[in-house]
Design brief:
There is one protein chain. By secondary structure, the protein is an alpha+beta fold. It contains 14 helices and eight strands. Strands 1, 2, 3, 4, 5, 6, 7 and 8 form an eight-stranded mixed β-sheet that branches. It is elongated.
Length: about 425
């Protein structure tokens, strides 16, 4: 049985964004709480009598961290109650940037300092954290807006000239807060932000590809047997689409006289009949490492992988098991079976709306015609001589037909049959 249906790509992507915003909200709570505790410990243990200016600065810092805590708490509530929508990531990110810019500006006003000293405030060093958190949102456009907003806001606060600062009288410390070093810091911040934008682009593409492939795998496994789930887990979807040529054993099965058997039966009885037949086919295939490629009305196509050898033995054994299974199920039902071994294309076909794993090639056609040749021949199974030559332990009860005519083909083939 295949895996359950997967949600649409967009829904999975929304879930990823919501979880990212949840993580950012928790970071806000943790960061604001830790900084508030650290500020209280530092002020209490400094032994310095705070001036009015220091008290204002400390009060502003506490208000800022309390507001940041409430912002994080608000988004926790929005997400937990299901109110959060992905567009809310925009105001969430922009409020982060606004907190930083407002904090720097108020500190400058409170301390009556020039904008040259914006880099001295601890608030500025929240910028790398905010930008790194923004990358978690998988939104490069939002990341670009955040970078430009922060860089532009800081640039506006910088004095545009050093004319009032005589270079030959500056101390080394004052020089480090001059316009050229500050512009270098802004340039470095811009470069760091653009690196995170690039990272956000890569993360978004990888996440989108992963989610898209997960959805395709989910749709594909609804139509595939369990034997192929390991291949889906380790193979790229596009590689499965491309497919590969490989040698396989092919078995075609068809019920003899199905039209007469089902004639006059109500649809539910026909459905029950086909279900019983398909159980026999599935059991025989599973018992001998076969894979039911598809059921076609009252017929079926089963394949046997020959990558490790043994496909011919498995196909012969599965055919014999199937005859016994059908006989035990209903003695009035007879089937025709065609077996062949050859090169086929194995892969995924169809568009994203309906994908199907299948095998195609002349070997499949040969197996189909061998099955058709059983009609009226007195044989229940025909196996091509190509397959028979690869059987390691030929079973008893099979006889060779040197020149078997195949429907739709001019040439005859050598085959082995059993009643």
């Amino acid at each position: 049985m295949g895996t359950p249906a997967q949600p649409p790509v967009s829904e999975l992507f929304r879930t990823a964004i919501t979880r990212a915003e949840w993580a950012i909200a928790l970071l806000r709570l943790g960061m604001s709480s830790a900084l508030a505790v650290l500020l209280v410990l530092l002020l209490g243990g400094s032994g310095i009598d705070p001036t009015e200016m220091m008290q204002r600065q400390a009060a502003f810092a506490m208000v800022t961290m309390a507001s940041y805590f409430l912002l994080g708490l608000g988004f926790v509530v929005l997400i937990r109650t299901g109110v959060f929508r992905t567009w809310m990531a925009w105001p969430s990110a922009l409020v982060d940037c606004s907190f930083i810019l407002a904090g720097v500006w108020v500190s400058l006003q409170n301390l009556d300092l020039s904008g040259h000293y914006i880099w001295a405030f601890p608030t500025v060093w929240l910028i790398p954290i905010v930008l790194a958190s923004g990358a978690l949102r998988f939104n490069p456009v939002l990341q670009v807006v955040m970078v430009l907003l922060l860089v532009t806001g800081l640039l506006i606060m910088l004095p545009i000239t050093d004319a009032a600062r005589e270079t030959d009288t500056l101390s080394p410390l004052e020089f480090l807060f001059g316009l050229p070093p500050n512009l270098m810091r802004l340039a470095m911040l811009l470069i760091a932000g653009l690196v995170l934008v690039f990272a956000s682009v890569l993360i978004r593409r990888l996440l989108w590809r992963f989610i898209a492939e997960s959805e395709v795998r989910g749709r594909l496994t609804r139509f595939l047997p369990e034997q192929l789930e390991d291949r889906l887990a380790t193979s790229d979807i596009e590689a499965l689409r491309t497919g590969a040529a490989q040698q396989m054993g092919i078995m075609f099965v068809d019920i003899r006289g199905f039209t007469a058997l089902s004639e006059g039966l109500p649809p539910e009885e026909v459905s029950t009949f086909l279900t019983g037949f398909r159980r026999c086919v599935s059991a025989a295939a599973e018992a001998h490492h076969g894979l039911v490629d598809k059921f076609i009305g009252d017929g079926a196509l089963i394949v046997f992988d020959d990558a490790q050898g043994g496909a011919a033995d498995n196909a012969i054994a599965a055919a014999q098991t199937l005859l016994a299974q059908v006989n035990a199920w209903r003695r009035d039902v007879h089937v025709g079976v065609g077996l062949h071994l050859g090169q086929v294309f194995a892969g995924v076909v169809g568009d994203d709306g309906r994908l199907e794993f299948t095998v195609v090639g002349d070997a499949v056609n040969v197996a189909s015609r061998l099955e058709a040749a059983t009609k009226g021949s007195g044989h229940a199974v025909f196996a091509s001589d190509t397959l028979w030559q690869s059987v390691s332990h030929p079973p008893a009860g099979w006889s060779k037909v040197d020149a078997l005519a195949l429907p739709g083909r001019a040439e005859t083939v050598a085959a082995w049959g059993r009643a």
